[in-house]
């Protein structure tokens, strides 16, 4: 299915009552339980509409990447999370074992149709990014079955939404396989979690409430008390691979997590497209006194550079990051590349997208003033969702530590720069040369000196690669030169100190370079916003006078004496007309 076909189908779904819920995100509050039910219903409907094939998911086809770039996820980010688990983590992981275990095929089809709620239970209360050390055990019994057990509370599975939600659920639970007293490494096991109403015996699910701001996902802590599993519950062979060491086998088992790091970037980028569109439209219709610019007149706030600068930069970033996503997806899908190199590409994309989008959304929210504080205008909601996405599929900072450490000690290489004379490449190369110089005086990459002098640099080093790759992807995609120039100029200002210290470029020069790019871009602000093609996914009342009027008319009105004649008569009878007149 082409991207255009996918978008056409999801636009039809977007117009249904399920996605145009009269209360969701607008004037009337929606309870957490009601929102969760709505999210599950939307996820099921969208799964059946998108109808991906396991072949597309496994082979990382263009259709798979287009699916993850669909803007409908901006309508309800929790749907994005559920379908990311359903399609990529659960169906994708099961698909890795289909050739060896063809009996998994019916289950895969049920997961793809969302007839079964798929769950991916990896991390534990005490083991997140160090999941290689997880403590849940699956002990092989003499009859070939397994006993799944949580040895203590710290080994309980943390975060997956395992609570019964009306649909039978099956989880891929990762546990340490113990066979004949031997530790055979971390393996995945298929476990029936609930029938949709109640959890099965031996499984305890505790609801974790209190994740502020984001759409509810019913996060849970899940424990297993000597749960018996059939022989076929094990995914893969009993004995570990002789070709891979423990760490590489673990990473291979979790391959779909790396895929998810790329896939999740799509909806995040589209969230920036939506928020920059909202800020662009609001900035043009919000009027203030003209002051020195236009005495005795009202002018739109977009007239001020402090307003149009962040909006234009966010618009430019939206276009560039979309191009970068597609470039990375293509590179990542290349099976000729090493496992480590593909992991590196995923980490770099995730790091840049998360940080850039989060920072820009914060600024856009501020530039919408008091309106930027409210969820009905969408921007602040995306900011809260970003906190979770930054951690999902691996925390950005920790992934950066691993990436840069491995690049510095030469374990593998990443795609070289297309233009070694480019200013963003010079910045990247300069930062890495500085780190390499420091590293030359350190005895070992696990030393205290490495911890103090190298690790704190890692995220910035990762981002420097991302800025360069994103710029080159934009050039390759032949975006509007004004978009490319503005992205480059604003990216340089991200690290003004380095350019001044190392290349001798003054801060004033950088300021004026960006100013020129902004001046050339300003006439295209509204066009760039419209060309993002996200208007259908925007419901923020501040984007138009008509929307605001409709929203205003639906707001709850507090009771008053004037609006309630019976109460008014009662008040007059008790207090007399003079007191009433005084109060009114």
Q: Explain this structure to me?
A:
The chain has 584 residues and is an alpha+beta fold. 52% of the residues lie in helices and 11% in strands. It contains 22 helices and eleven strands. Strands 1, 2, 3, 5, 6 and 9 form a six-stranded mixed beta sheet that branches. Helix 9 runs parallel beside helix 11, helix 10 packs antiparallel against helix 11 and helix 11 packs antiparallel against helix 12. 42% of the residues are buried. The mean pLDDT is 91.
Output the structural class: alpha+beta
| Low-confidence runs | none
Number of beta strands: 11
Which percent range fits the helix content? 40-55%
End-to-end distance:
65 Å
The biggest beta sheet, please? 6 strands, mixed
- Residue-averaged pLDDT: 91
Label the overall shape: globular
Summed up, the helix count is: 22
Write a brief structural summary.
The protein has 584 residues and is α+β, with helices and mostly antiparallel strands. It contains 22 helices and eleven strands.
List the helices and strands and how they pair.
Elements: H1 3-14, H2 32-50, H3 54-59, H4 62-68, H5 77-95, H6 105-113, E1 117-121, E2 137-140, E3 146-149, E4 157-158, E5 169-179, E6 182-194, E7 203-207, E8 220-224, E9 227-229, H7 246-253, H8 255-263, H9 265-285, E10 287-290, E11 294-300, H10 305-332, H11 339-367, H12 379-391, H13 396-408, H14 423-439, H15 448-453, H16 458-476, H17 481-492, H18 496-503, H19 507-521, H20 525-531, H21 545-554, H22 565-583
Parallel strand pairs: 1-5, 2-5
Antiparallel strand pairs: 2-3, 3-9, 4-8, 5-6, 7-8, 10-11
Helix pairs in contact: 1-2, 2-5, 5-6, 5-8, 8-11, 9-10, 9-11, 9-12, 9-20, 10-11, 10-16, 10-17, 11-12, 11-13, 11-16, 13-16, 14-16, 16-17, 17-19
